[in-house]
Design a protein that fits this description.
Shape: globular
Number of helices: 3
Strand content: over 45%
Helix content: under 10%
Radius of gyration: 18 Å
Mean pLDDT: 78
Structural class: mainly beta
Order of helices and strands: EEEEEEEEEEEEEEEHEEEHEEEEEHE
């Protein structure tokens, strides 16, 4: 189950990129440099596009270096609250996993695309200090489309996830250039109708997705909303290209610039939050979201 981000004009016939959140959040664009916050909440008490985003994590406690019984690896980046673990190997980095330091639990996988359709050639770990604040960055350099995916990217595209001190909300920055895109090949590689997408986070137990400030039921809690509404293609919130996708909305027209997944029964929320982007460079305006 997923949520997505992208540009409206590119949703059906043009290059699209999504930030998928399992459920999904997606971003669609021909050229994208952006930032936002990935909001991961846990309530223990009950053309060219430039932008950035941050990963948020709420309610976590400090913990030791052990994660799921494993000692932190050399390429792990961590603070007192969360840990980022790069996934893949040299020449094929697929993204990273985000862990809660307190419990050692995997909070969410973050991938460049579903089904391994996108990867990075190089991984770089950076550590700097500014005004006494330690800034750690996992940088994925030279993003590529998988052979047979129908996706062509620029020569120097990148994505970076940053931890600022002990802030539990990682920030995500990226620069993406789509030089070519063949929808038939992309959908064949994805196993069916699917917009181009970039950046995915997963929360399989999500009961609702959070889009434009609204909460809508996922098929897990109510299959009618996406899969059975008789208004499909004319008034339904389902995407016109697939019952497995919601409609696509530009963040520039969203009262609340967030795409997220919420599992109330598990007291967990995962999402991408662009409020900081909106209040600074406003590069989120052409980015779209969908489930």
């Amino acid at each position: 189950m997923e949520a997505v981000i992208g540009t409206p004009a590119l949703v059906v016939h043009h290059s699209r990129f999504l930030v998928l959140v399992y459920f999904h959040a997606c971003i669609l664009a021909e050229r994208c440099v952006s930032w936002a916050r990935l909001a991961v909440a846990e309530n223990r008490h009950g053309g060219r596009l430039e932008s950035n985003m941050n990963l948020r994590c709420f309610g976590w406690m400090t913990a030791a270096l052990l994660v799921c019984g494993e000692v932190a690896r050399a390429d792990d980046v961590l603070n007192a609250r969360v840990m980022l673990r790069p996934i893949g190997r040299p020449g094929q980095w697929m993204g990273l996993d985000l862990y809660d330091r307190a419990s050692g639990r995997l909070i969410t996988p973050v991938r460049f695309a579903a089904n391994g359709a996108m990867f990075a050639d190089r991984l770089m770990l950076e550590r700097n200090e500014k005004d006494g604040l330690v800034i750690q960055t996992v940088r994925f350099q030279d993003l590529r489309g998988k052979l047979g995916s129908g996706l062509g990217l620029g020569d120097h595209d990148w994505a970076a996830v940053q931890l600022n001190g002990d802030d539990p909300f990682p920030r995500v920055d990226f620069s993406l250039t789509i030089t070519s895109f063949t929808s038939n090949e992309w959908e064949r590689a994805q196993g069916g109708p699917c917009p181009f997408h970039f950046l995915t986070v997963q929360l399989p137990e999500a009961e609702v997705w959070h889009q434009r400030g609204w909460l809508m039921a996922t098929p897990k809690s109510d299959p009618f909303v996406l899969q059975k509404d008789v208004a499909f293609g004319g008034g339904s919130v389902a995407g016109e290209f697939s019952r497995n996708w919601s409609y696509v909305c530009a963040l520039g027209g969203s009262p609340v610039p967030v795409i997220g997944l919420w599992a109330p029964s598990a007291k967990r929320y995962v999402g991408f939050e662009f409020q900081g982007t909106r209040m600074s460079d406003n590069t989120e305006r052409d980015v779209c979201t969908a489930y």
